[in-house]
Amino acid sequence: MSRFSYGFAALCVGVVMTCGLASAASLMITPVLLEAAAPQQGTIVTLQNRGSKPINGQVRIFAWRQSGGEDVLEPATQVVASPPIVSIRPGTDHAIRVIRLSQTPVVGEESYRVVIDELPDADERRNGVVAVALRYVIPAFFFEPARAQPRISWFIMRENGTRYLVAQNDGDRRARIAELMLGNKIVAGGLAGYVLGHSQRRWKIDSKIDPSARRVSAQSDLGAINDTATVREK
Predict the structure, then answer these.
(1) What's the pTM?
(2) DSSP letter string, 77-101
(3) What span, in angstroms and rounded, lies between the C-alpha atoms of 106 and 108?
């Protein structure tokens, strides 16, 4: 099974949308965060063509975990997209079902990424026009409602001469982090990322940030974060 980091989206000209309404060119996608509470085994994402030409798309599902503080995606075997290939006429929409095949009950929360590629137009390629492929990456979660909410703690570590701010989540559910700051300096503006359940997510600390800074502030889907990071030597 292939293994690669979340940065795979940079391999093509594309976009990654994880909040609000995903849009680029003529393709609109909603919602941009999928959730299914057990025993629900599926959810739906809708692709809408607002342009004047047909849009062809490919939908793939990747299992999402975190290792070494980084996002890792692997092709999913227990969650599928139906249909995986679509052709959407102008002014119409198409519903994609994201289905969990496993009959084993969800424990805690399972995390996935739905990757939607807008495929280049074949006629434009033949006519010598440079066609830009767009990519949309949407988080999807299957979860057990009774499981514990996120429990986030923060620490600072050094690895190979680089300092990192690390969020450790000891809860069962993920936490969405935005506008992350250390002291009065920005570590990651906008959407900083997710910390999955029982996982760690780390961010590189700019060398210009005061080495003595310990105060962490951010926004999350559960409200404002104001905490103090500990220091761990490695």
Answers:
(1) 0.85
(2) SSEEEESSEEEE-TT-EEEEEEEE-
(3) 6
